Amino acid sequence: MTYKTLLAPFSIIPRVYEEELDKKNGIKLGQLKNGEKSEFRGDLEKNVFFNGGIVQSLDKIDQKILQKYKSTPGFCSMTISSGKHLLDHVKNIHELSYNHYVFGKEIDMKDGFPDDCCGVSSNNLLLTLMEKGYPNAAYLSSGHNHAYVGLPFVLGLNQEKGFILVDPTSDQLFNNKTHAPRNYVFVAGTEWEYITDWENGNDLYPSPSRPKTYFSNLQTLRDGPSPFIEWDTNITKFLKEYLTHKS
What we know:
It is a single chain. The protein is an alpha+beta fold. It has one domain. The protein contains 7 helices and 6 strands. The protein has helices spanning 13-25, 44-47, 58-66, 83-107, 118-131, 218-223, 235-241; strands at 78-80, 138-142, 147-155, 160-167, 184-188, 213-216. Helix 4 (83-107) crosses helix 5 (118-131). The longest helix is centred in the middle third of the chain and has 25 residues, at 83-107. The chain is globular, with a radius of gyration of 17 Å.
């Protein structure tokens, strides 16, 4: 079964989740100033454990990810039993992205977060998700100068295949910043459309037919252990193989 998800800048789900987290953490995410310390009540040190962007601590990657998942296939998807279980994961993943957004704002990542920060923030979120129990997380480059994170899953008794997609810098993709969704999360099948104002409205799905699409996942970390996060340009291999195992 194939799903297509067309992202509109007025999606309500991220706003609802964001309002809940704002109340929990004592801030208003949309009002944070770049480079200013917020009153955030959460634990950024714990929830943004990886924060080096493209270059990370190899010791931390080895201790927190490679050793932890030694017996986990490099291409894996998580088994989800029900729609409720799926929504629980969506909320968990959104909260981690929310934490990364707070971090990006407070340090003023690349002098203007979230602008031009998709690669750095997505790499940080990728590794943090793995550290938090999601070895199926993958960094996805769209080929249109934008990257985000996908988490493949298999749902229910019918073994329905899909992705949870999370974009930690999604608000930079829209011309109307008032309504632009932050930390956009959506659920799709094995194919999706991701349409914004970015790159003249080009689809940000990482199509194998497009140049400059690539991915990073547990397998690429394992194949090339390095402080520099390695990429694999064979996106066809990724889209084919991620479903062959379950985490």
